Structure formats: C-alpha cells, structure tokens
Amino acid sequence: MPQSISSLQLIFSACLFGAVAMVGYVIINFFLKSDRDPLRERLRASRTTETAEQALKTSSLSPMVQRISKAVSQPLMPKNREEVSRIRRKFAHAGIYSTAAIHLFVFIKVILCVVGLACGVAVGLMQKEPMIGAVLAAVGGLLGMILPSLWLGTRISRRQLALQSSLPDALDLMVVCVEAGLTIDAAIQRVGHEIALAHPDISRELGITHMETRVGVPRIDALRNFGIRTGCSSIQSLSAMLVQAERFGTSIGAALRVHAESLRIKRQHNAEERAAKTTVKLAFPVVLFIFPTVIIVLGGPACILLIKSAMFSH
Fold first, then answer.
1. Which residue ranges of the chain lie beneath pLDDT 50?
2. To 5 degrees, how large is the angle CA 285–CA 287–CA 290?
3. What are the distances in angstroms from CA 39 to CA 46, 167, 198?
4. Residue 257's pLDDT is what?
5. Other CB atoms closer than 10 Å to residue 52's CB: what's the count?
6. DSSP category for residue 313
7. What CA–CA distances, in Å, run from 252 to 187, 193, 242?
8. What is the CA 208 to chain-centroid distance, rounded?
C-alpha cells in the first residue's frame, strides 16, 4: 500500500512537472519568440507580401461578415470625427488600411466581452456561488474589452520597431539609386521593389508612397503622408528632411547619406543602451528565483541534519 501511494505521488509529480513545463514553454514562445528563423520568416513573407494596391483595398472580408460587424458595432462607434480619425491613424500605424477594420475591431470587442460575461456566469452557476460568478463575469468582460486593444498596441510597436530597424538599409539603397541618376520617385519605387524580401513592411510603405505620387498627389504631400501613416519617428524625420531638400533644392544624395549614417549611429546607441540595462534586468530574476533556490539546495541538508542532531532531540 505505501509503495502504491509513492508510485502515484511520483506519477502525479511527473504529470505536474510536464504540465508546468509545457505551459512555460508556450508562454515563453508566445511572448519572447526567440527561436524564430529569420530566413523562414523572409521566405514566408515573400509568399504573402501585399502590394500597395492590395494594401489599400476596401477589405478582404466577405460581404456578410462586413454587414454583421457593421450592424453590431454601429451603436458603439465614436460619433466624433476626431476620435474616428485617431482610431484610423492607429490602424494605419499597425499596417491595417481596410475601411472595415474599425467595425470588425469593435465587433470582436463585443463578442469577446459577451463570451467573457457568459463564461463568468456559467462558472458561477456551476459553483452555485453568485458572488464568484459576478466577479468572474466582470473580469471576463473587462478582459474581452482590453485584449483587442493590447493586441493592436503590440502590433503597432512591433511594426514600428521593424520599420526603424530596416530604414538604414533602405536609405543606403536609395543613396545608390539617387547617385546613379534616378529621380527620388524612381528611387523610392526601385528600393521598395528590391527590399521586399528582406523588409516587407517598409517595402509596402514605399510602394504606397510611390503610388500616391503616380496618381497625382504632390511629392511633398506624399512624403508627409509617409511619415504620418507609419507613425515612426525616424521615418517622420526622413520625410521632413526630404521635404526640406525638395523645397530648397539641396543634394538629396548627400542628405540621405548623412541621415542614414545618423540613423545607424542611433541604432547602435540603442543597442548599447539595451546591453547596459541587461545587468539591471537580470538582478530581479536572480534575487527572486535563482538565489532562493541556491540557498535551499545548499542550506536545506544542513538544516535537516541540525534538526535531527542531539541539540534538538529533546
């Protein structure tokens, strides 16, 4: 009987360890994603990269989904134009240009809120505890309203980081194209086409900028829209620099070279700053997780022997 109990305890411990390890692996893989293969991501992006025309289409959703999302989200849509413009700007910063994206976003918020409320009420009914059900329903509804906004903020931050890291490479190619004799419009088109495999985000934005100039938008306005649309500070400074060079007739090649060098130095300084912060960030996991474990492993046997000694025998 004691042997069967010990075997059951061993099996339970192994299952618990496996479950905790699996959950930890999923969480680390979801948030950190340190095992991503850059080559595989580039090859996947080459098959799914949108062109500028496809990015500015009305929507890729079915008409039924558009009608349902619009009907459900219409009462909850902001009535102020400034608020609608702010939300559209946030979606543009995330790389989503569909006109039906706002309605779908609000629709998903409503669905998740209703699902969270229903799950909380169901758990309360199963446990026969109305207070627990009310608390879980409130928490579930709040999570349903917050999760889409968190996803949108994460997408915006990742996209701006990708744009900022890929901008010096795009500027180097643009310098080569401009010094080879191409105009700034032709250079933007050429760089957007050549850099699509390595950096699809900035390639699509450059394609949209070239398409705007091709349909008749003034070059200065297209460059300003390029900075406003992305929301990246480096691209906004690049747009301002190109506008000033276009207005005063200065050498665009020299200006692009100086700007690319400054962005590369800034990226190096940011990397050095993150490396310097590593030791401070490592102090918290060391103190909270590693140091107590080392104390238990080293001092635990000594404490057990001390308790079993003659000093504590009586």
1. 1, 34-35, 48-49, 58-59
2. 70
3. 11, 19, 9
4. 85
5. 19
6. -
7. 11, 20, 7
8. 22
